Amino acid sequence: MSIELLATSIADRAYEQIRADIVFGRLKPGERLRLDRLAGAYGASVSTLREILSRLSSEVLVIAEGQRGFRVAPVSPAGFEDVAAMRLLLETYALPLSFAAGDLEWESRVVASHHKLTFMERRMMAGDQGGTELWKRYDREFHQTLIQACASQTLLDLYGGVFDQYLRYQMVAVVFRGDIAAEEHRQLLDCALSRDSDRACAVLTRHVNECVAYTLARGALA
Question: Could you tell me which CATH number the domain at 3-72 has?
């Protein structure tokens, strides 16, 4: 491997690791990101890390503070409401497109992603909190698979970024509504298989809005 390719792979790997650590709450909201510590933790140079954090700043996951460096973007109730509204805007636009274009292979992926999500939801409801991150990964996979057939990579990329911001709020607040959320996911699966996009959008709107209301009522983001 050439020096250029090696440097690129190190930078890409560090970017993915830091991004995941922010989204899944291992790097806490408001935490100051010291370049010397990050260099040791992620195996990248200070200059590379500066570029990575600038990139994450453009994704609204990191705040650049000029000469003071960088910190993880904070969270707030108003921020969660904004991100949730953006998620709904994109997802309810993409669902009808995906349902109309989805084929048998798409249906199979939807069923498979729902099966994995259901497995983790059962574990969570049984009191096993050790799989929280995997549960949210499967939740992300299920919702992304539902809109995967929309035929717009630009829309999917934009949605992925917004969903990760939404997911970060959920991980910070550890939001799990148990049977209610699991039933809403089952209804979304039924809608996908029957191509009922109107009902799917209604279920999704309730799913997201009630998650926000539940989170704010608990004061988890105060």
Answer: 1.10.10.10
Q: Please write the tens of the pLDDT for every residue from 151-177.
A: 999 999 999 999 999 999 988 887 788
Reply yes or no on whether the pLDDT at 2 is more than 60: no
* 185 within 8 A of 121, measured Cβ to Cβ: yes
Q: What is the CA radius of gyration of the chain?
A: 19
Locate all alpha helices (DSSP H) within the chain, ordered by sequence: 3-23, 35-42, 46-58, 77-101, 104-125, 132-146, 153-173, 179-194, 197-217
Q: Alpha-carbon torsion 97, 153, 26, 127, what sign? A: positive
Question: In whole angstroms, what is the distance from residue 216 CA to residue 201 CA?
Answer: 23
CATH number of 77-217: 1.20.120.530
Look-up: residue for tokens 């009902």?
A: 199
| Domain limits, the chain | 3-72, 77-217
Q: Which of 143, 22, 36, 35 is nearest to 74 (CA)?
A: 22
Tokens (6 digits) for 115 = 């099966």
CB atoms within 10 A of CB 14: 21
What are the residues whose beta carbons fall under 8 Å from the beta carbon of 118, sequence distance 6 or more? Answer: 182, 185, 186
Candidates 100, 132, 131; CA nearest to 200 is: 100
Cα 60 from chain centroid? 13
Residues 84 and 163: beta-carbon distance below 8 Å: no
- What the block records as the tokens of 192 is 């996908």
The shares of helix, strand and coil residues in the chain, as percent rounded to the nearest 5, are: 75, 5, 20
pTM of the model: 0.89
DSSP assigned state of 130: T
